[in-house]
Amino acid sequence: FKPANYVAGLQGLWTAEGGNASYALLTRCFVLVNSTQSRIKIVDTLVNLLRVIIEGDPSSLLPTVWLATNSISPPYISLELGLGGSAISKALKTICGLDGRTLKTLYDKVGDAGDVAFEAKKRQSFTLRKPKPLTIKGVYQSLVKIANTQGTGSGEIKQSIVNKLLQDARGPEESRYIVRTLCQHLRIGAVKTTMLIALSRAFLLSRPPNADFLLKSQEELVKLKKEALAEVWVRPEEIVKACFAKRPNYNDLIPVLLEVGVCDELLVKCGLTLHIPLRPMLGSITRDLSEMLTKLQGRDFTCEYKYDGQRAQVHCDARGKVSIFSRHLELMTDKYPDLVALIPKIRGDEVSSFIMEGEVVAVDKESGELKTFQTLSNRARKDVAIGNVKVAVCLFAFDLMYLNGEPLLDRAFRERRELLRSLFTEVPNQFTSVKSIDATSLDSETVLEFFKSATDAKCEGIMVKILDNLPNPKLDEEAEKDLLKHESPAKSGKGKKKVDKEIEPEKKSRRKALLATYEPDKRLDSWLKVKKDYSTTFDTLDLIPIAGWHGQGRKAKFWSPVLLAVRNEETGSLEAVCKCISGFTDTFYKANKDFYAEGGEHVLGGKPGYVEYEGGYPPDVWFEPQEVWEMAFADITISPTYTAAIGLVSEEKGLSLRFPRFLKKRDDKSIEEASTNHFLAGLWRKQEERASAPQEIKRED
Ligand code: ATP
After folding, report:
1. Under 8 Å between Cβ of 594 and 628
2. Contact status, residue 256 vs residue 269, Cβ threshold 8 Å
3. What is the pTM assigned to this prediction?
4. Name one GO molecular function term (predicted).
5. 48 has which bridge partners?
6. Which residues of the chain carry a pLDDT beneath 70?
7. Cα–Cα distance between 442 and 438 in angstroms, integer?
């Protein structure tokens, strides 16, 4: 982290006019990230880029973060560029002097619009005017202007902004990334997923705060050895992630970071706020009821119906303004005017403002009978007029996160639930609390009956939630023993350290799992989902298809096998886990081949830096990560070929799946929600436990 090495080869690159950080700097960072396979290098490059900006031109930090994460606004603010591919083609023709035919040949040859821009710029033989070096701020402002330009004549204005950007782009690489940014396909997913980690580290190195968790100067910090540094990173990363989970908007986070740095004050200044959605808490999967009962031994919990609808986060302020957000933080107030109209009826006298969560489910208006998710998805998405609502819905509330100006996230679920039940009024078939029963592990009969009644009522299964924050020393001890069991694979000195390091966060998260607080953006054992399917079939994984080989014989026209990967959340890389040839129909194969057509927009020019795969024969094409596929498998094996979860169960080997089988596409999941290396390692451990002690785990239900 010596300043001279901030970003290799940046001499003379970093400032443009007026001391503003140049776009060349950001481009250099993209090129470096794209050219390496090392996760550590990717994170370090990003950290170094951010340090340069924080120290040299802090006013460019926010635009840098938006551009590097390939967005210009959070999901709940709809700011679309609204550019067609033709705007880019037109600009390339005007600026680089290409005719339509040459451009088409280039598209056919390289596929990706950014790569076309790279080639086109290389061939440019004239300039219309002297280019003015692009700055990060300037590019970001141009994007915002494109998005905000609407109405008559907007096409021309947008076109002239695109032309200007390409005119001023210095050299082929800048052109490539300008065009990829305009197409909203930066193709460097790793940057997006590691941004919060990189921000916390960059701030620590640039402006070490005088905080309890860090009483070190910058000089001391940069001299620390890797292991010591890794420990220093932990708390700041937690703080930045916690802020972003409660208020997922860089427009809010970055100014406060610049003001106070990474310290506990950040949590206060950038916390939960009305009309800004927090990232939802997520449920952990359990295989079946007996596993759930084993996990929650000794605890009071509640079982709730797991309704099959759409998750909704409802915000209401003291003046009665209502905002409704989706599971993915999109604003959907317009979709549910009937729910908005319902709020004054359900809000009791003692309630001024609140944030509540629930599942919106299609129901029969008269009888209240639950309808399928399919029925709900027939409902129009935008600008629904209240008199025009065709599909009646009921909101089944399950949590209360904020009340009368106060966040409730740190309160135990029993208390939050009590407030929800007592302060809000039921409206038949339109608003009610989720159906639930409270239980302990001793009530297995009751729980089984409740599970059956849930599935009979067309629910997907049940959600099981810890009720109290009671620390339970017995359970804590057991969790500790459990974890120690898994430290055995690496006995030797060097390996042992690595495993210990990996176990540490998990140990913490298990401890956390004993609490009944609301943990935004976390998937902990305090919320367990038991679905109908899990109780009859094997575990499944949500994997990302990343590459394919030409099929043989009948399958010669298709991609078969397809290579699949899990996510590594810490590094943003994708770790290959298996090849799959099973579960596909010919219709699926064909659609898949069309989607990932050679030279098409979803196929990359070569192996991307963020993919970890060391297998023998290289794939014929590399897919751009686009989809999530739900996969079944017979079991998980330790593999010398695949890199998935490497370092988590063995130092040198990864994990792979035996007999992987495609089940379905998860269109409702983005690639950021695909299964992680830690999740895979967790499934492997469970499998090993089952194998060594089947009678302990299997209970009668
Ligand atoms: P996840 O949302 O956990 O990432 P997923 O998209 O696969 O995963 P599910 O496995 O269906 O979702 O389970 C979680 C979802 O169940 C929640 O996001 C919520 O929409 C829904 N749900 C229904 N009933 C409840 C309930 N009582 N408590 C919490 N969530 C519920």
Report:
1. no
2. yes
3. 0.76
4. ATP binding
5. none
6. 1-17, 127-128, 189-190, 208-218, 471-513, 533-538, 691-701
7. 12
Output the CA 98–ligand 1 centroid distance in Å.
51
For the record, the structure tokens of 451 come out as 């599970």
Could you give the ipTM of this predicted complex? Answer: 0.98
Ligand 1 touching residue 304 (CB < 6 A): yes
**Closest among 14, 101, 10 to 54, alpha carbons compared:** 14
CB atoms within 10 A of CB 293: 23
Assess whether the C-beta atom of 267 lies below 6 angstroms from ligand 1: no
122 is known as an active-site residue: no
Q: DSSP string spanning 388-415?
A: G--S-EEEEEEEEEEETTEE-TTS-HHH
Ligand 1 contacts CB of residue 269 (under 6 A): no
* SS3 assignment, position 312: strand
Question: Do the Cβ atoms of 41 and 215 come closer than 8 Å?
Answer: no
Given 306, 335, 465, 593, which residue is catalytic? 306
Residue of minimum CA distance from atom 5 in ligand 1: 669
673 CB within 6 A, ligand 1: yes
User: Would you call 657 helix, strand, or coil by DSSP?
Assistant: strand
Question: How far, in Å, is the centroid of ligand 1 from the Cα of 308?
Answer: 8
Rounded Cα distance between 522 and 10, Å, is 38
**Which atom in ligand 1 lies closest to the alpha carbon of residue 304?**
27
3-state secondary structure 447-482: HHHHHHHHHHCCCCEEEEEECCCCCCHHHHHHHHHH
What are 391's two structure tokens? 């599909």
CA distances 259 to 252, 254, 255, Å, are: 11, 9, 6
pLDDT in tens, 446-463: 998 999 999 999 898 999
Alpha-helical segments (H) within 211-310: 218-223, 226-246, 250-260, 264-269, 289-295
- For the Cβ of 327 lying below 6 angstroms from any atom of ligand 1, the answer is yes
Average pLDDT, the chain: 85
Ligand 1 mutation pick, 529, 530, 541, 567, max ligand atoms within 8 A of CB? 529
Residue whose CB lies within 8 A of the most ligand 1 atoms, among 463, 519, 628, 671, for a mutation test: 463
